[in-house]
Backbone:
């Protein structure tokens, strides 16, 4: 592993130059990550809502919802 063009270690860190790539773009990366994170949550919510609506529609057809609810036991009936 190379340490760069360093002839003397007796200087300050700012004399060495950037120590990692993309110095100064941290704010942009954080903004992009937060936007991706929020977008992923929105997409996930939409996909889950679509699946739940599809399942609910299937239960509403031909009385399946009433069958499912009548098979469910509530704590007060136990």
Residues:
């Amino acid at each position: 592993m190379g340490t760069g063009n360093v002839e003397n270690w007796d200087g300050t860190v700012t004399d060495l130059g950037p120590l990692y790539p993309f110095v100064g773009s941290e704010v942009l990366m954080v903004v992009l990550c937060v936007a991706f994170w929020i977008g992923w949550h929105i997409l996930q919510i939409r996909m889950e809502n679509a699946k739940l609506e599809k399942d609910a529609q299937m239960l509403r057809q031909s009385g399946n919802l009433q069958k499912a609810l009548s098979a469910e036991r509530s704590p007060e009936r136990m």
Notes: The chain has a mean pLDDT of 82. Residues 10 and 36 are 43 Å apart (CA to CA).
